[in-house]
Amino acid sequence: MASNSRLAIAIHTAGMLAFGEEMPITSTMIAKSVNTNPVVIRRIIGSLVKHGLVEVKMGTGGGSKLAKPASNISIAEIYLALEEGEIFHVPDLEESHGCPVAKLVRPVLKEIFGDAEDGLIAKLRHKTLQHVIDELRMELPADFCLKKLSNG
After folding, report:
1. Residue of 147, 148, 128, 140 lying closest to 15 (CA atoms)
2. Helix (H, G, I), strand (E, B) or coil at 66
3. Spatial separation of the C-alpha atoms in residues 52 and 88, rounded to whole Å
4. What is the Rg, in whole angstroms, of the alpha carbon atoms belonging to the chain?
5. First-to-last C-alpha distance (Å) of the chain
6. For residues 11 and 75, is the Cβ–Cβ distance under 8 A?
7. Distance (Å, rounded) from C-alpha 43 to C-alpha 135?
8. Model pLDDT for residues 29-78, shown as the tens digit of each residue
9. Could you say which DSSP state residue 128 is in?
10. Cβ pair 10, 84 in contact under 8 A
């Protein structure tokens, strides 16, 4: 079963937008860096805009940029902006379902999974986009320039 990569792509996208002051970053550049279609990036940017994390200016000279400093954007905010729903979904059963174990296990699993998701979000609130960027900067060569990304 494939895992959902939207959070990783959204963090990657926001991280690249954080470098937007150094040079304009387009959805095509981000898509190339993530190895996906620019439409995927534009949808993610749309979710980030809807939740006040990114601003978009249309027209000539337009583009996307972070709405606030990376140090003020938690990974939890990015996660919640994606509106993915429950991490672990427990499907409902018809009232007429005959297996008592199946009926009884669902509320137990919902509580366990809900607690796990609450813990994950709490943990993500303590990490910011700036943490991610700082880690990257420690690993990137000193002469790294984003313009290299646009040239391939």
Report:
1. 128
2. strand
3. 26
4. 19
5. 32
6. yes
7. 26
8. 899 999 999 999 999 999 999 999 999 887 776 778 899 999 999 999 99
9. B
10. no
Q: What is residue 97's three-state secondary structure?
A: coil
Contact 84, 6 (CB under 8 A): yes
Q: What is the pLDDT of residue 148?
A: 56
Per the DSSP assignment, residues forming a β-bridge with 39 are none
User: How many angstroms separate the CA atoms of 119 and 138, rounded?
Assistant: 28
CA–CA–CA angle 91, 95, 98 (5° rounding): 90
Which residues lie below 8 Å from residue 48, measured CB to CB, with a gap of 6+? 10, 13, 14, 54, 78, 81
Class of domain 6-86+128-151: mainly alpha
Percentage, residues of the chain above pLDDT 90: 55
Q: Is-contact 128 75, C-beta < 8 A?
A: yes
List the domain boundaries for the chain. Answer: 6-86+128-151
